[in-house]
Amino acid sequence: MKLYLRNTFALRPFAAFLLFAVLVGPAFSQAAAPSRSTLSVTERELSENITIGTIKEITAALSSAEMQGRGTMQPGGDKAANWIADRFQKLGLKPLGDKGTYLQKIDFRETVFTPETTFRIGDEALKFGTDYAFLPYSKEGKSANGELVFVGYGLQSRDLGRDDLAGLNVSGKVVVMLDGPPASISKEAWDKSNAKFAILGTIVRGGASAVVIIGHGREKETPELIIDYLGRRQLAIAGEDQESLPIPPIVMAGKGAAAKLFAKSQTSLSDALTSAETNSFKPVKLNQSARLVSKTKVIKGTSSNVAGFIEGSDPKLKEEAVLFSAHYDAYGVENGKIFFGAADNALGTAEMLAVAEAYSKMVVKPKRSMIFLAVTGEEYGLYGSKHWAKNPTWNIKKVAANLNLDGIGSEVYGPVKTMVGYGAEHSSIGPLLKDLAVTMGINVIPDPMPDEKVFYRSDHYSFVERGVPALMILGAPAGDKEIWMKRIKDWEKTDYHQPGDTIQPGWAWEGAETVAEAMGILGLRISETDAMPAWLPTSRFAKLERGNTKEIPEEK
Predict the structure, then answer these.
(1) Which residue among 254, 475, 505, 550 has the highest number of C-beta atoms inside a 10 angstrom radius?
(2) CATH number of 115-294
(3) pTM for the complete prediction?
């Protein structure tokens, strides 16, 4: 269901990455002993000035209750932005926001579902955000009602001898269906055939009043998880065209709600799910009616990126800049609960600010200027970084590279011994990272799950779209693999994008220090190189120039 969720699950693959990394990371290469002796004097000075104390202090401040989860377009988010701006000023960074300030304001619109929103099965009202949620892009402010009918996967295939809609006129019906593929069809074949869109198209053209999607139990993301996200407020950049399709309301229903849909039918939910896996499946009348109302209100407001820079020391190269980025926003306050966002991404922001502090202490500054950008709105669609990339406060053609930090806090699970640089295969930054990793005694591995396309799903990609070579650094620990595996699974289940994402007593802060050091030294090496980083000839971005405004060619 990622089609509907924009950036909601952008970081979930990181947990799987970490599982992969701790299991097989050492098999990729044999790291050098962890010696810093081959670092230059300046690099050692920079490394020593990146401290655990600073990272801990900033992470604690940004993830405190006072910051109220740093929600975009919420008071806590504004408070966090001003806190970071004050930190920039104290470090001596020059402002790079609007009108001589550190803040770059962005106009947002917030969409929330009002109490008029309902889903009733017969006389029983389901609970929005728990039992069900409306998927975006369907008609809002409209009511829908009709008899409930279950159509399995809605699949019609001559090759399979299957017709899930056999003898059924869906006009005016509330169609209950499973999100494919069936167990007998591979996800790859399903996606390649574009079956999901073809099925929905058939149902919509048939005049269905509404569509209710239920789970089959094999989903990577459970219906309950999707409902939790979709029940939250939704944000978008003000002025951007709202995507609206001429389709009826589409609802995701959880397991409890699904059982209620079948309560008066002659087929239980369990039997219906079993039947839907067979090619002999036939539609099932559920002997109940449903009424749905999707009602929202839109609120306009602002949130801010925070930008500052350290001027370079070279008279010519200081016009160019290395851009460091991390998103400071989390989910803020939802339904009275604070989403603290300690690992995602107060920690990454703290690491970036620790790098800024280390640079501020250098007597002789790097040749190129150093920009530090804390962006807002990442959790809702990379909005802050996209806005800066489209409205840069530095000449985008003179941004040498972007280094980004974002993750699930895997670097504080233990000393970092494995690292991936998302995007390393695309530009000359990749070889720089590998050289540095050897010096630091770290294994650099390629993206272990390229099919998840993590490279395209965090803030660095906003700069790639403008032609700026970029890299996102993620670290993973050494140690007892079984312990890490359990810890990752537990965290993902209970804390990821939830109120439980708080600083934990067992965090190994030296891992965060290592990630910050890698970011800082890599930025310094980019700064001191005569030529700006370039796209590799083998990359799909090879022909992009900085300042690109053209559509990027499809990946082959």
Answers:
(1) 475
(2) 3.50.30.30
(3) 0.91
CA atoms of 372 and 356, how far apart (whole Å): 7
Closest CA to 334 of 200, 232, 184, 486: 232
Nearest by Cα to 314 from 371, 396, 356, 369: 369
Distance CA 185, CA 181 (A): 6
Superfamily of domain 39-109+301-528: Zn peptidases (3.40.630.10)
Rounded Cα–Cα distance for residues 374 and 350 (Å): 10
Find the farthest-apart pair of alpha carbons in the chain and give their distance in angstroms, rounded: 81
CA distance 451 to 258: 31
- The pLDDT averaged over each successive group of 10 residues in the chain (556 residues) is 38 49 43 57 96 98 98 98 98 98 97 94 96 78 90 91 94 96 88 84 94 94 93 91 74 96 95 95 96 94 98 98 98 96 97 98 97 97 97 98 93 91 96 95 84 88 98 85 75 90 95 97 97 96 95 74
- DSSP 8-state class, residue 530: S
Rounded distance between C-alpha atoms, residue 95 and residue 359, angstroms: 16
- For the chain, helix, strand, coil in percent to 5 are 35, 25, 40
Distance CA 359, CA 97 (A): 20
Q: Buried b / exposed e across 474-491, counting CB within 10 Å, b at 16+?
A: bbbbbeeeeebeebbeeb
Give the domain ranges of the chain: 39-109+301-528, 115-294
